[in-house]
Amino acid sequence: xxxxxxxxxxxxxxxxxxxxxxxxxxxxxxxxxxxxxxxxxxxxxxxxxxxxxxxxxxxxxxxxxxxxxxxxxxxxxxxxxxxxxxxxxxxxxxxxxxxxxxxxxxxxxxxxxxxxxxxxxxxxxxxxxxxxxxxxxxxxxxxxxxxxxxxxxxxxxxxxxxxxxxxxxxxxxxxxxxxxxxxxxxxxxxxxxxxxxxxxxxxxxxxxxxxxxxxxxxxxxxxxxxxxxxxxxxxxxxxxxxxxxxxxxxxxxxxxxxxxxxxxxxxxxxxxxxxxxxxxxxxxxxxxxxxxxxxxxxxxxxxxxxxxxxxxxxxxxxxxxxxxxxxxxxxxxxxxxxxxxxxxxxxxxxxxxxxxxxxxxxxxxxxxxxxxxxxxxxxxxxxxxxxxxxxxxxxxxxxxxxxxxxxxxxxxxxxxxxxxxxxxxxxxxxxxxxxxxxxxx
Length: 441
What we know:
Blueprint: E1 11-15, H1 22-33, E2 36-41, E3 55-58, H2 64-75, E4 79-82, H3 85-101, H4 104-117, H5 123-127, H6 129-138, E5 146-149, E6 166-170, E7 179-182, H7 188-194, H8 204-211, H9 214-217, E8 227-231, E9 236-245, E10 248-260, E11 267-273, H10 276-289, E12 293-301, E13 307-313, H11 330-339, E14 354-357, H12 360-364, H13 370-373, E15 375-377, H14 383-409, H15 411-420, E16 434-436
Parallel strand pairs: 1-2, 1-4, 2-3, 14-15
Antiparallel strand pairs: 5-8, 6-7, 6-8, 7-16, 9-10, 9-12, 10-11, 11-14, 12-13
Helix pairs in contact: 1-11, 2-3, 3-4, 7-8, 14-15
């Protein structure tokens, strides 16, 4: 029996609310580093096809908090790892509810969540983009100029001090689903009101156009969610993924996006870089917030190679599972910290600076040169997982190809469908003045 399977092993529960491959990739990396791993995910999640992950718990949207508490009670993990923003918010809600109960079992869950995410004082800063950027500015870090429009206040489209295009971001949002680029002042009101709606609404664009009209704008309705209007920085999207422990960064990987799946979409090819300014900013913010677990920081590197901090994601990001040739391995560093043992990993190290992300680059361009000359990050030792991910993307691809056909041959119809929200704009199409934006990594 290996160290990973004995009774003294550290156990971790990987939690995901969406069916993205990140939970599977980080679960495999953690298992290879020496953790006993269980996954709390919706039914049909790709991680359920991973051979190395044998323990699974069902996450139900109708009983979210009960699903989480039940999984924690049954698995008794030493740490929790969130694979998406929804998981972070759910854990913070559990913390709030359980802490109010005051019983012994509740105290254990509260301590576990604080050990995994950081102290409660940091929750609002990790949840709200506006609060985090305000803190970064107070710390003297290089950030885009930002105007915050608080919730419960009437929206005034006359926002001075910012030149277009600008980024409109809603607090408490999932990734790029509540981020827009606004290129004209006339479109700002519609974008802001669209971002007031839940990310899952198909008709949110139509809602934004209606409430953003001049007629309804006269009523000066209060906003439901805080909005940040941010200066748009031209440069190379970059990210630093770190794993930290009680305010100390254990290890980190910095990359810049070489290719993206579509304009302003997630990265499909990244280059591993060494950028001291990004490293220093991450260490400073982790220490300031006393964070633990996996955290990703989004940057833009301008023409002078200066790093502009955009936002923080208190969860697993696309590069957290990497094992680099220089020994950098986030999962193994975390395991070594918890077990007080030398770092080890079963993962094959990456010896190339250019890495094609799976399945992003394959979907972007099946004939891409990067699939031949860079490291293609495919979990070949997990064939069932690879097949599941590709089948999932195939279903999405059918809808994407239908949309592309409409864009090419019937652009007015495609434009109308996007405007009313019947189809999403994240597949590579959007009106030229209003675009969905997904963080680069």
